[in-house]
Amino acid sequence: MRSLLITLVLLFQTTCLAHASAIVEACTNLVHDYAYSRDHDDPDGYANVFAKNGIFLFRGQRFEGRAAIRKRMLDSSGQTTRHVVSNVQVTVETPEKARVVSYVTVTIATATEFPIQTSGATALGEYHDVCAKTTEGWKIQKRQFVDVFTLGD
């Protein structure tokens, strides 16, 4: 009986670890899919990393719902951007919710012909995300950009 109990506990722990690993992977993919979609002029892909009622907070502005988030990207057309994301840390809170913090360095230019000469990064900060498991899979429920460094002249 004792060995059966130990086997069940180990099986449960292994299942939980595998489940947590899948959540970490799904949330990390959202972080990278956001950056890739933004940098490759894909407004639908950009908006679809968010839940249907997702919220994006950026420097005092609030964009709520996929349509508003998509419009935010469309309103900045003509820009070339690169989001370099690193140090992605996922904390699984429940089987349906995780928090993510990632570092981001953003460069934005109005030129479109490569290579683009730039004077440096436009923003250095962090994304603070709440990810949720939805009927569509894992999505960003809320994302907030936090400025960490400001760039002087």
| Distance between the amino and carboxyl termini | 71 Å
List how many beta strands DSSP finds: 6
State the low-pLDDT regions, or none.
Answer: 4-17
Average pLDDT, to the nearest integer? 89
Helix and strand run: HHEEHEEEE
Order of strands, main sheet, comes to 2-1-6-5-4-3
**Tally of individual helices:** 3
Strand content: 35-45%
What is the SS-derived class?
alpha+beta
Round the Cα radius of gyration to an integer and report it: 19 Å
Helix percentage: 25-40%
Q: Which shape, going by the Cα principal axes?
A: globular
Q: Please outline the major beta sheet.
A: 6 strands, mixed
Give a structural overview.
The chain is an alpha+beta fold. The protein contains 3 helices and 6 strands, in the order H-H-E-E-H-E-E-E-E. The protein has helices at 2-39, 43-48, 66-74, and strands spanning 50-58, 61-64, 80-94, 97-109, 123-134, 137-149. The chain has a 6-stranded mixed beta sheet with strand order 2-1-6-5-4-3. The radius of gyration is 19 Å and the shape is globular.
Secondary structure blueprint with pairings:
Elements: H1 2-39, H2 43-48, E1 50-58, E2 61-64, H3 66-74, E3 80-94, E4 97-109, E5 123-134, E6 137-149
Parallel strand pairs: 1-6
Antiparallel strand pairs: 1-2, 3-4, 4-5, 5-6
Describe the structure concisely for a colleague.
By secondary structure, the protein is α+β, with helices and mostly antiparallel strands.
Features:
43% strand; 6 strands; alpha+beta; 3 helices
